[in-house]
Amino acid sequence: KIDQRKKDERKGVRRKRQKSVHFDHGHEHEEDCEDDTRTSLNTISIPNDVNSTSLADSMDHLSSHSQDCSVPRKSMSADRGVSIDRQGRNATEINMADLIQKSGQIVENREQIHKEQRNTHMDQLEAARTIGGADVNPHAFRFKLWQWLQHFSGYRYKFAFKAALEIVIVGWMAFVPDTEPFFSSWRGEWSLVTIVAITAPTLGGNVINSIWRIAGTALGAVWAIICWVACGHNGYYLTPMILVFVIPFYYLKENTKQSKVAVVSLLTFLTVLLRKYSLADNPASETIYELAYKRFATGVVAVLLVLAVSRAVWPYFARTELRLGLALALYDVGAYYKSIFALIFTPCCEGSLTGPVLESFRQLEYRMQVRQIYQENLYQLIKGEPRLKGQFPYKLYKELLELQGRIMDTLLSVRVVITSGFSAAARRDILKPTQEERKEMVKTTLILLYILVGCLQSKNPVPHHLPDPMMARNIAVGKFKNLPLFQSKHKPSDYLHYYAYIAATKEFISELKDLSHLLKALFGEDTFSLDLV
């Protein structure tokens, strides 16, 4: 409205005044426009929470205002042929420079706001993934209580609870007057020691420990009976008999994998024989047969109790944990793969990497190696968990563990190649022309990894049609072969660098293909095929 009123005033002035007056009026209008522009720039402020829409509106307002101020000046110069003096021109140039500077600041602030919004959004997604929902209040009491109770859902707390329950079931008889004589006469403390010795987190570990415990107890008790019947209370004859038994079993304990049966046999033998030897002069003492029988019976009762509690209360199967552990290991492979190839798409890998970036890679590699060792231990415990529906596929899971190790070794080779750095020329002549094709290869590989992780977790059949990262890789390699650098005779050292990178990538994709075949052998293959449609 102000601009329209000024235009009307200019029309009336042109009818009444002379040329000199017209020039003065045009100069005054120019100064008014400059004052209005300065006022608009000074009144525009950018708050911290301003969004991109308000910034765009401010830019449009400044552009339209500058156009409104420039149109009358141009029309007056064209119609009246009047030139503006040098002072007015300099003032206008200074004003436009200020306008451009303010506009640049607005654009920079807009980019900063967009970056903060993206970071906030990623933090919300991370919180939603960690907590289980974006609407959860992490400061609420019920959430803190839930978070504290999550510590007790781990297998360590469940294992501690089961071990304590087993000890309470046997040990309460020692504190009740009516059952205390029975507990003392049958040496119930032997059962408690057996429980502590053989209890393991997994059912397979309990079965294996129980077998060794029973076998060792039987061997030690039988040899104690033989020694006492043959030698009696004569210490000179008992000494060589003891050495004949102790030396070979001590060798088994120190130099073979049968250390558990050796230790249990030695403990049982010495407990039974030495107790009878110390009470030989007491006519009311127990016979050697009673001592051996009670020792064996208390061990068997403890073994049966441990197996029953392990199977009935929070059963923890090694074969289930191995399968889920392999799925988590594959998920870590995907995270490691993303982290590696994120470097090659950013300028940060010019030159070798050191410091926090390299340290983060080493920590992830260490975690993957620890998980690999834990899974190998679980595989050894599976042999103690017989299944009713059939034999466990030991061979296939062994191949899975070996293939997982090869995949991690291949990714480590890729990481060494990438973190050693590409030069600026290599990034310009090799990486940038094939960037889109390599991105497609990474996307396809990650999708394939996530599908395989889901099949391992759910035991569902593997889809017949899977993403093919090898095809995307071949497209990237084909485009690389058509580059002028590849056709030239003089290739830089980065050419070999890139060749090692694509060779390791091919090996990694081939191993993923072998992994999909193994999972098809384990869980079957979905019968749906587009070839049959």
Order of helices and strands: HHHHHHHHHHHHHHHHHHHH
Number of strands: 0
Largest sheet: none
Tally of individual helices? 20
| Straight-line N-to-C gap | 70 Å
Helix fraction bin: over 70%
Class by alpha and beta content: mainly alpha
- Oligomer state of the chains in this structure: single chain
The proportion of strand residues reads under 5%
Using only CA atoms, what is the Rg? Answer: 41 Å
Stretches with pLDDT under 50, minimum 5 residues: 18-87
Mean pLDDT: 75
Q: Can you tell me about this structure?
A:
This protein has helices spanning 2-16, 19-43, 52-80, 86-131, 141-149, 155-171, 180-185, 188-198, 203-231, 235-255, 259-278, 288-312, 318-344, 356-382, 394-419, 424-431, 435-458, 469-481, 484-487, 493-523. α6 (155-171) packs antiparallel against α12, α9 runs parallel beside α11 and α17 packs parallel to α20 (493-523). It is elongated and about 135 Å long. 77% of the residues lie in helices and 0% in strands. The longest helix is centred in the N-terminal third of the chain and has 46 residues, at 86-131. With 533 residues, the chain is mainly α.
